Amino acid sequence: MEKQYIRKIRNYIVDGDIQIRIIVLNLFYMSAMAIFIVILIFYPVVYNMFSEDLEVQYRSAQTFIMIIKQLIPALLVILGLYTLHQIIITHRICGPLVNFTHTFSKLAEGDLTRKVYLRQGDYLKKECQKINEMIDGLSGILKRVMTDHQKLITSLEDAMSHVQDIDTKERIASSLEMLRNDARYVTESLSIVKLRKEN
Question: How many CB atoms lie within 10 A of CB 36?
Fold first, then answer.
């Protein structure tokens, strides 16, 4: 039971490199703000501790000790809760990013069957939708190209099988014109795709 619980906690660190950097940076800013607030709170008390009046010094010292006893545990609880909150937030951002990375890797291999699916609490839902729309668009273009390519192959095989039946120049020209039209369909389907020029 305890191992399963520890595993669940470890699952919250999806991309340790990014998550830990974000959490540490946010904790640094939170700590800096806490220190600034503590300085503002303690300044009048500490200032009075160096007063010449012993009664004022005594009351200031007691106030200082009382504030320290209450403030330090409160700050530790706040920093602990803030750290937990940061882990959850970064998990909901980095989880989708890892999912995007796996999908992009599959796309680079030519596999257009993988889509991005997010969990209920994940962020980046609009980006997920756009990526899935892109995959659907690419799949549609490639399906059209494959269909046109198959038509071209069928027409070519048909023309090759009837080459002995073709006895006039007009019939040869007609068969070649049919092949050229099928090749144009493939070209039109491919013209939608813009490729980066290599240097």
Answer: 10
Exposed / middle / buried, residue 103 (Cβ in 10 Å: 0-12, 13-18, 19+):
buried
Domain count, the chain: 2
What is the token pair recorded at 133? 């729309």
| Residue 149 sits in the same domain as residue 77 | no
For residue range 119-159, list pLDDT tens digits in order.
888 899 999 999 999 999 888 888 888 887 777 777 777 76
Q: Which residue in 150, 157, 140 sits closest to 183, CA to CA?
A: 150
DSSP notation for 160-176: HHTTTT--SHHHHHHHH
Q: Which domain holds residue 162?
A: 132-191
pLDDT per position as a tens digit, 43-59: 888 888 888 888 888 88
* C-alpha 173 chain-centroid distance: 55
- Is the domain of 9 the same as that of 95? yes
91 and 23 both lie in a single domain: yes
Amino acid at 51: S
Single out the residue in 81, 98, 123 at which a domain terminates.
Answer: 123
